[in-house]
Amino acid sequence: MERVWKCSGLRWTSDGPVLVWDGGRRSGLPRGKRVAFAVPAGAVRRCVGARGNACPVAAGVPGRSRGARCEECARLDRAHSVAADTLADDPRPYRVYLAWFGPGMVKVGITAVERGPARLLEQGAVCFAWLGAGPLMAARRTEELLRAALRVPDRIPYADKRAVRAALPGTVAERAAEVSELHARAAALTGWPESLSREPCRVVDHVERFGLLGAAAAAGDVVELVPGGAVSGELVAAAGPDLHLAVGGRRGVVVLDTRLMTGWEVVPRSSDVGELGFPVREFAREPDGLF
After folding, report:
1. pTM score, whole prediction
2. What is the SS3 assignment for the chain?
């Protein structure tokens, strides 16, 4: 019987992105690697549970869900979450950051100091800069200050991030410009919590680490995995949870959000030929001219 694998998600390490599988096994994802797998016919996507515990009823979940959790497990997972504002007594120090994903797409956020830049890599931030560090509630108040005073959001949809990756400015200085300008405006604000130590503006650029420099533009993204479907493609770039795969044919390069893989049992494919058997949403293209 062919062995099946269950994906636990994509993680960013010092060596780059890796796919993590149930049981602890990891698959490194260097650029140029072929990513090839299939969802067996008749397979059902199951809830991944909450906070390390399996779903008690192994509930089925929709193919388009990014969280792969049933309603009850999703509620439990967010019950003690910094991101959901349900954990206010975390004693760890936190950093406040500005992250840039493309022209006009800057967000403010916080992350535990001990995590370093991992959160920014996981979100697919093209570049970022730290604003300051301090206790959790001081970081939260600073985040709210920037949202209110500078109209900076704390969330940007992944679909928007993907759609602009093919048209990023070509130089580090151009990509850093919006973050640098907002950092200066933030530093000039009054009302910062006294317990938050400020940091100078040093913009970190992830374009080369993601492999986006010179990579072929993606034509669209996978909407969901389906039973009986398969994909086989060469990894040309990776940003956040997204794998940019060259599948050939008229599709060229497509984006696979690895969060869509969790909850499915998949089997490896040995084909070296590009293949895509999952639904794809094509990115809107700019018109070539006036007519």
Report:
1. 0.91
2. CCCCEEEEEEEEECCEEEEEECCCCEEECCCCCEEEEECCCCCCCECCCECCECCCCCCECCCCCCCCCCHHHHHHHCCCCCCCCCCCCCCCCEEEEEEEEECCEEEEEEEEHHHCCHHHHHHCCCEEEEEEEECHHHHHHHHHHHHHHHCCCCCCCHHHHHHHHHHCCCCHHHHHHHHHHHHHHHHCCCCCCCCCEECCCCCEECHHHHCCCCCCCCCEEECCCCCCCEEEEEEEEEECCEEEEEEECCCEEEEEEHHHCCCCEEEECCCCCCEECCCEEECCCCCCCCC
Q: Is pLDDT of 291 > 50?
A: no
State pLDDT tens for residues 204-213. Answer: 999 999 999 8
* Residue pLDDT, tens place only, 92-145: 999 999 999 999 999 999 999 999 999 999 999 999 999 999 999 999 999 999
